[in-house]
Amino acid sequence: MERFLVKITILGFLFLFFSSIFSGTVFAQTEIYVKMPVGGYAPMDIGIAEFIPKEGEFSPEEKEITQKICQIIRDDLNFSLMFYVLDVDSFVFNVLEQDWLNLDGWFKLGVKTALIGKLKIKDDQIDVTMILHDVERLKKIFAHSYKTKISNLRGLAHAISDDIVYKLTGEPPIFSTKIAFVSQRDDAKEIYICDYDGYNLKKLTDDNSINLSPRFSPDEKRITFTSYKEGNPDLWILDLKENKNNKISSEIGLNSAASWSPDGKNLALTLTRDGNAEIYLINQMGEIKRRLTKNWAIDSSPCFSPNGKQIAFTSDRAGAPQIYIMDVDGSNVRRLTYQTSYNDSPAWSPRGDKIAFVTRSASGFDICTIDITGENFMRLTSEGSNENPQWSSDGYHLVFSSNRSGENEIYIMNWDGTDQKPITKGGENYSPCWSTGH
Q: Do the Cβ atoms of 341 and 356 come closer than 8 Å?
């Protein structure tokens, strides 16, 4: 079995009133404006204005482009859980007899921070300057310019959102991250990649074979996956820039479910070279450095802790699959899950405090989380069969596969199970992984 082995509206505002391609993200972090509290949300209000032209007036095409950029930014910031986006249009400011650049108008609306953008389009290039204001203290938080092609409109918007999140929260932004997954759209299972929100879908492999378990390297430049394209389930590594792949582990039997160490130097994976499914540590060239488990049971699905000192994995040594944790050298093995009779596919949160995993349920499988102490077990899904959980790099979101719609699709949700929504449509989609954003 692969799973084991291998807004506020306009009326609201009036109520409040009457009662590389683009520039990179490099800022000195000086002040945290909003933080995620333990046990709940405390989103910060942020207003996003309609863009204004850097010169002249907008053409209808330019007006449409600015609206698209603003909407993507709103969607990003709402998804972050850190912000409550106040969608302000020119009608509100006309009522206030204010213009976008006057912070008094924002203050009257109760907005704490305001994003104002100026845009110019020439030929196929977009030139945007964004200014983020602290309305209450009447000061500029940051200003930044971005230039890119119109075809990279979504990338531009995500870059702006990344900068806002980093500057105001100090948290790792995720809006320019990617999600890779397995998709079966004919007889083959190929690796695909898309933006975190499902846009810009691209096919990465075309092997007319079975490809499984993609995983991003920490630097996001490579993806490992298991492929049957030469008959044996070998481990391959795909260079995303060069679009070339090389076989790195071809031991007889399984070479599956590889997980990168946080420093990118090693991988943990399941091999059956000795007749039983065991976890091994290999380097990037595929050379075996160490065998980590030695047990009659099936040991699989390894994943590293964020500090690289421990590995969570699945084993049926207690009679059924359960989640275990061991040191990176294979010592100090301890069982983590006891709550249900079948638990598999651990994924360690980048914050280090929780592990997501799959548990068997009446409808198939559900996604759960548990603290690394074994406490605070939480079931996050309850509809259809749900598998393959993986974390976003900020630790506030999960990606997973589910058949709740009648087909297997890729879904994303918040860390507590709220706001579950699909990001794919069509085909049979499995085994997602989320890039690190580095």
A: no
